[in-house]
Amino acid sequence: MFSLRKYNTFGIEAAASQFVEISSVEEYVSLRHKGDYSNLPHLFLGGGSNVLLTKNQDALVVKISIPGISIVQEDADFVWVKGGAGVVWDEFVQFTVDRAWSGLENLSLIPGTVGAAPMQNIGAYGVEIKDTFESLEALNLKTLEIEVFDAKACAFGYRESFFKRAGKGQYLISSVTFKLAKKPSVKTSYGAIQEVLAAKGISQPSIREVADAVIEIRQSKLPDPKQIGNSGSFFKNPTVSASEAARLISENSGIPHYPVEGSSDVKFPAGWFIEKAGWKGFRRGDAGVHAKQALVLVNYGEAKGEEILALSEEIKKSILDTFGVVLETEVNIL
């Protein structure tokens, strides 16, 4: 058995039957052709930043460490940048920010890898992957052929994609390409970005200044997984119908809410409900809710995955009973 503790940001102690790390698709294809580990299911891990391990994995865990950042093409207005699936996401973002290419700066400091980013359609501060996504390459695990997916084929939704639904477990994403603007077009209206910039006396921020503001905000609110085990936002922000939103707003004075683009639905911050229900800072043993951000469940040291899962279920029931709102888990439970 192989310990997975250092391969998941929750720091959960769980083991895999077998483990292998690959730096290319060819390595994995070679593995398959040899018939090695054919009696085991294969579980793919990137940065391990969006999983909760609740048990030992009777599987071959494949750690994807495909490297490389390259410019695919560019013109006067845009540059197309490709990242290997194993590249650390924030390293990729900072590579683009350093060159003043606009589009990913609001996604600074999100944990994980490039390959995992489109699976979740990761997003923060008014920006999602789908906004700048061009295409990705993925290995079909049945045919062992590379396929190319554009944005439509990825079927992006809120923290969702084809790879979390119909295509789940059928592909190994090997690289992702983004189309970024050479002429700065920053987004600063969402969250606390504007406040941080104003406090610094910045009225017309550069891409780097926006990225630095996002990093400052995230560091002030979110625990560093190297210090306290966590997987970032554990729950999705709930989206409800206009009529349900009207009820929530009338019953809860000052509740924050945001319109959903292209819809009459309304989105509410899950952390607000969790905090109002009294869970912020809650701790049972080594499983808890972070003291500064109620959306983040944490492992203070030796919590088991099933203990954190049980806590999450208690929170979901509490929010349903108190507010009539259903919370959905963002983290993948394994």
TrEMBL record:
Pathway named in the protein's UniProt entry: Cell wall biogenesis; peptidoglycan biosynthesis
Domain FAD-binding PCMH-type as annotated: residue spans: 12-183
Pfam families: FAD_binding_4, MurB_C
EC number(s) reported in the record: 1.3.1.98
Entry annotation: catalytic residues: 159, 233, 330
GO molecular function, one term: UDP-N-acetylmuramate dehydrogenase activity
Presence of keyword Protein transport: no
Subcellular location: Cytoplasm
Functional note: Cell wall formation.
NCBIfam families, per the entry: murB, PRK00046.1, PRK13903.1
Protein name: UDP-N-acetylenolpyruvoylglucosamine reductase
Species, as recorded: Aquirufa novilacunae
